[in-house]
Write a structure and sequence with these properties.
Radius of gyration: 35 Å
Number of domains: 4
Largest sheet: 6 strands, antiparallel, barrel
Number of helices: 22
Shape: elongated
Number of strands: 13
CATH class of the largest domain: Alpha Beta
Length: 680
């Protein structure tokens, strides 16, 4: 009874082995088998089990239809036969159509006029002529030297001609033997044999197909592990879930506030390998990271960074704390060569790959291009170390942290701490910006106790920075959405021409007069990712149609396409309804705030919308189209008991231009309740 398996029949040389264990036999993927093959496999498997248990042969045959002589032969010659993967075949040998031993012809070849009856001719020939077999394998694996003039990518016909020449020298043609008796002269058989030899020698095959470079890639991967000496040669990018609990304060109808917990925040970080500097990041409010978050992080690494006005002190930032783009002008828009991600983020980055190449000129390195492993911290050691540093210097030192593991809570309840202290999302965003900027100005032991920014400046003085900068217009359009839309309406419907673009109708004075475009497609571009009230339009031949404006209920309050999609989804699910003439954003905010005491977490779109309203109230508060957002914020400020934010009465910025912010000069928002000290 080896290994606890019940054996009722003794097979000499098989069941008496110490390592014999049916339960440990490798098994095939039964889901990949056809219905007929699966049924035959299960019958064979059951027959083998019954045979080893000592059941009578007649009983086995009557219940499974498998003859006992086949079972004995299958166990000895098939199941126990070594597999190319180093194990035995096991249950895999019982799959119909599986060939265990190469075919070896035992009878003399007598091919008919159609060429049939010559199976196994080449294998027999190679067994009879071992010297010729060695020469043939060397000829198949032959490749030219690096610096010698020789033929590369030799066609199969050249190998075939050499093959026939060698066989003639052996006298096969004189004796009228295979392949000279065949119409094809053995060409298909030789091609199949050559493919088998190349598959058994992949490194040499790679050299034959792609030369020395492809051979090196087979040996060393795509260069993920090679050393990086200069800044912006390689950037590591990864997403990290913040280990903390935070709340968002929602105004109540009675004039108070309802704190709602936020259970998940992600930060996507780009870190330069050579200097260890964080060149950009993005705080995601979504449940899971998506492509827009990745693109936003890349965009933030290419635009100018500026300090936030923090709520928890005037001395939060170190003297030289900054991201590279806010440290010096030469780092604004500076491109890098390679972007290394792990397998989890690589799935999200597939749609980002083309934009990364076109705008930044960077190659995406993921586990599919080398030997990197999914979720392996050793493949991106620098950014994983940064995430540990980020926790140890900030979030893990606070009582609202959940820690990296359960033991880190130390008996505290982070949820209650966040609610009682009112540690809000905005404070977390400010703290994160301070921690990252201060990290770039902190001496690093791996950099000779220079800070990452000092290391960048040192490399710049040595002229080791790349010369390539991203085009500002291309950077601004990273998050733009372009779609071909059919022009609807027209005089036949008694309606001015318009287009439907991602959940809303758009038009303007110029498009309204173009009845000739009805039924045709035009390009509609959402060029401002944080304001989907407007969009650009051009015809398919490039003629500009100006700035389109959204029709009600999407015309009043700033919002993004993601927020609009979420609201439309909730309307379709009948969570709330949109009345004629109502503002969709206002109705959505009323719905979320009226359900502030519910058990469900706060909707991520509400958090994103809150951020957009704050930004628009600061920079475009005099625009007539954001009056609703501005009044909404003033109402919130009055409820909170704080003074209203100072806003400019100057003329609004042109809608088609991006908002420009000068570094370190933003006016702090005062819409938040006062920060309370967290309980210990």
């Amino acid at each position: 009874m080896p290994n606890g398996v019940l054996i009722g029949r003794n097979l000499k040389g098989v069941t008496d082995r110490e390592d014999f264990s049916v339960e440990n036999w490798p098994s095939p993927d039964v889901g990949a088998l056809s219905t007929a093959d699966l049924g035959q496999f299960l019958k064979r498997q059951e027959a083998v089990r019954l045979y080893l248990q000592g059941v009578a042969s007649a009983t086995i045959y009557s219940s499974t239809g498998v003859h006992p002589r086949f079972i004995n032969r299958a166990i000895r010659e098939r199941c126990m036969h070594p597999h190319p993967d180093g194990r035995i075949y096991g249950w895999r040998a019982l799959v119909p159509g599986i060939h265990i031993v190469k075919y070896r012809r035992k009878t003399k070849i007598r091919a008919d006029a159609s060429g049939r009856g010559a199976s196994g001719a080449l294998s027999n020939l190679l067994l009879q002529e071992p010297d010729f077999a060695d020469r043939l394998e060397k000829q198949i694996l032959k490749s030219c030297a690096d610096l010698k003039l020789a033929e590369i990518r030799r066609p199969r016909h050249a190998l075939w001609a050499w093959f026939l020449k060698e066989l003639r020298s052996l006298g096969l043609e004189t004796r009228n033997e295979w392949p000279f008796t065949m119409k094809t002269m053995g060409y298909p058989t030789l091609c199949r044999y050559a493919d088998a030899v190349l598959s058994a020698n992949p490194i040499k095959a790679a050299r034959i197909v792609g030369g020395p470079q492809l051979e090196k890639k087979m040996v060393s991967g795509a260069g993920i592990n090679r050393p990086v000496h200069n800044p912006f040669e390689r950037v590591e990018m990864d997403a990290h879930k913040l280990d903390g609990r935070f709340v968002v304060m929602i105004p109540a109808l009675d004039g108070g506030w309802h704190p709602r917990l936020i259970h998940r925040l992600w930060v996507i970080v780009l870190l330069d390998v050579a200097s260890r500097a964080v060149i950009g990041y993005h705080l995601s409010l979504r449940v899971e990271v998506n492509k827009d978050d990745v693109i936003a992080a890349i965009k933030n690494a290419l635009v100018r960074w500026s300090r936030k006005m923090v709520s928890f002190g005037d001395q939060a930032y170190f003297e030289d704390a900054a991201l590279p783009s806010g440290h010096h002008e030469r780092y604004v828009g500076l491109c890098w060569n390679e972007t290394s991600v792990d397998g989890a983020l690589a799935e999200t980055c597939k749609t980002v790959k083309s934009k990364l190449q076109d705008v930044v000129g960077s190659t995406l390195l993921d586990p599919s291009a080398g030997f990197a492993q999914r979720r392996s911290k050793d493949d991106r050691p620098f950014i994983e170390t940064f995430f540990r540093t980020l926790g140890s210097r900030g979030l893990h030192r606070m009582s609202n942290t959940t820690g990296a593991k359960v033991q880190d809570k130390r008996g505290r309840d982070p949820d209650k701490v966040a609610v009682i202290s009112e540690f809000q999302l905005e404070y977390a965003a400010e703290l994160l910006d301070v921690l990252i900027a201060n990290y770039n100005a902190t001496p690093h032991s791996s950099l000779g106790y220079r800070s990452p920014l000092q290391m960048l400046d040192f490399c710049a003085s040595m002229d080791k920075l790349p010369k390539r900068h991203a085009d500002p217009n291309s950077v601004q359009g990273l998050l733009s959405v372009r779609k071909l839309c059919i022009v609807r309406g027209g005089y036949q419907q008694g309606r001015r021409p318009y287009v439907n673009f991602l959940g809303a109708s758009y038009s303007n004075e110029e498009l309204a007069q173009r009845h000739d475009l009805v039924g045709k497609q035009i390009w509609v571009i959402n060029h401002l990712e944080d304001d989907a009230r407007i969009a650009l339009a051009t015809t398919r031949d490039g003629h500009r149609l100006g700035v389109l404006r959204a029709h009600p209920p999407w015309h009043r309050t700033p919002h993004s396409l993601g927020i609009r999609s979420a609201i439309n989804s909730m309307v379709r699910n009948r969570r709330f309804a949109l009345a004629n003439g109502a503002d969709a954003i206002t109705v959505f905010m009323d719905f979320v705030e009226s359900n502030a005491k519910g058990k469900f977490p706060i909707h991520p779109s509400y958090l994103e919308l809150k951020r957009l309203l704050v930004e628009h109230s600061q920079f475009r508060s005099s625009d007539a189209e954001v009056v609703a957002a501005k009044s909404r914020l003033k109402e919130t400020e009055t409820t909170a008991g704080g003074a209203p934010s100072e806003v400019s009465d100057d003329s609004a910025a042109v809608a088609t231009k991006p908002v420009q912010t000068s570094p370190r000069t933003q006016t702090p928002s005062k819409v938040l309740p006062p920060l309370r000290k967290a309980a210990n």
